[in-house]
Amino acid sequence: MLLNRDPSEAYRRVDFDARVKGADSRQLVDLCLEQVAGSIGRAIHAAGTGDNGARSRALTRAVAALTALQLGVDPDAPTGEALLQLYQSARTAMLDSVLRFDPARLDQIRQDFIEIRQAMLGA
To answer: Is 40:112 a contact under the CB 8 Å cutoff?
Structure first.
């Protein structure tokens, strides 16, 4: 039986897997930040086109990347508690959007993660 799969998702998966295998910890954080922002963007787009399946897959991917970020936080680091609060707030908003999709709220979260990533890359 043939599966109906999105070819761009297959390429995205191969790219992701290759990047993870050769990454150091800073690159992994960058990759997770990129995945959160990109996946939220895809969820917003999918919701706009009425593709609930793609919206759900994108939110799931965003939550998975966010979970990886949360697991990597040292709560004793100077910014540890703030990061954990930010990540938990973003997680709550994403999970709330499963039932009541709020593109404006998600876009703000997306922008926050883009800014964090830009600051990290500039540092």
So the answer is: no
Nearest to 115 by CA among 91, 81, 123: 123
Q: How many CB atoms lie within 10 A of CB 92?
A: 10
Task: Summarize pLDDT for 66-76 with one digit per residue, the tens.
Answer: 999 999 999 99
Cα–Cα distance for residue pair 58/41, rounded to 1 Å: 8
Cβ neighbours, 10 Å, residue 88? 12
Is 69 domain-assigned?
yes
Q: What is the pLDDT of residues 18-59, one digit of tens each?
A: 565 666 788 899 999 999 999 999 999 999 999 999 999 999
Residue 76, in any domain of the structure: yes
- What CA–CA distance (Å, rounded) separates 42 from 50? 12
